[in-house]
Amino acid sequence: MPRNRRVNRLLALVALVVVSVFIVRKINHSATPQVSQQQQEESLRTTAPKHPGSSPPSPNPLLQEVGEPDGILTHMGDTDRRRANATLLSLVRNSELRGIVRTMQDIERTFNSKFNYPWTFFNDEPFTEEFKRRTQAMTKAPCRYELIPKEHWEAPPWINKDIVAVSGQILVEDDIMYAKQQSYHKMCRWNSGMFYKHPALKDVRWYWRIEPNTRYYCSIDYDVFRYMEDNDKTYGYVINIYDAPQSIRTLWPTTMEFVAQHPEYVNPNNALRWLTDSEIRPNHNAIANGYSTCHFWSNFEIGDMDFFRSDAYDKYFEYLDHAGGFFYERWGDAPVHSIGLGLFLDKSKIHWFKDIGYLHMPYYNCPASKKCSGCHAGRFTDAGYLNRENCIDNFFKYVHAD
């Protein structure tokens, strides 16, 4: 099918979905809680006996003594001090200088003063001289300051602004954060499938994503990049949570369209059951049309860009990009990365860095470790009602804990 016809077809489908959702919500809004309750009760009746894992959550592993991960480790005093081909990566605005400086203090104190990996900062606007001066002063490692090309940042030409306006209002009515903040949508798209295409990273393999105003609580005495490389890991995370299903209604159906066209990309040892669980949060699965919404919270991630550059992931991103959901809905880079990893990667290559104490408000990863301070062991959040957003038990149930 010619590209223009395909784009027009996708736009028509998206428009139909947007209008349908709008009409259904307006006409049948009062019935939604009843349907959700029926779905939940039916799910519990029909599936609970089949999966004993739906019983009460397992003991919190962060309350047990947490040490360094098993496997090959490279420490500061080791003879083999070869560094991985890696960078600390941060997408940050000039206005976030104070926040990134504080986070750099944590990273340098806990890790990078020992291993001296370079920093690469990205912005859609030129960095100020003050930003460069103050960030470089925080580290002995080299810093690079990169401008994102317009064609990587701006909405692509096939995005229909009228649909964006209508769908944005639906997101607002669903209380979706940043619904009409176009810079947020652009950021999600860039982090999903554009960052690894930047010329500054073309010869770099590994990255550790660092965000301003995040905190790090534990001394990291081994090289995390070498750990990933030497132990055949591809992706590392610390927090595993649910997403707002109203923000990604068509992400899973669009993914299934791609998979139907490219079944060869699906890894036999995948994490599909984690991605499609409907027992614990059945209403999430229903609203997201088959997706549990569980995902790795990507404000912390240590990853192999060779995976994202692979045909499987890169073509997947291109398919999503042309569907328009980064702008017509609020597809985030976290669920997009997680679905790509969960389908196309051997799940044994995913690692939980449970020994790294971390905070991105309002969620923590706090291990019981003598190397940590200022982080209450086992804490997930200070807001009790948010504990239900933790999806780590689901990951243990369907995938593994390493």
TrEMBL record:
Question: For bias kind Polar residues, which ranges apply?
Answer: 31-41
Q: Where in the cell is it found?
A: Membrane
Gene Ontology CC terms, in alphabetical order? Golgi apparatus; membrane
Give the positions the UniProt entry annotates as the active site.
Answer: E301 (nucleophile)
For the region Disordered, give the residue spans.
31-77
What domain of life does the UniProt record list for this protein's source?
Eukaryota
Name of the protein in question: Glycosyltransferase family 15 protein
Q: What species was this sequence derived from?
A: Lipomyces starkeyi NRRL Y-11557
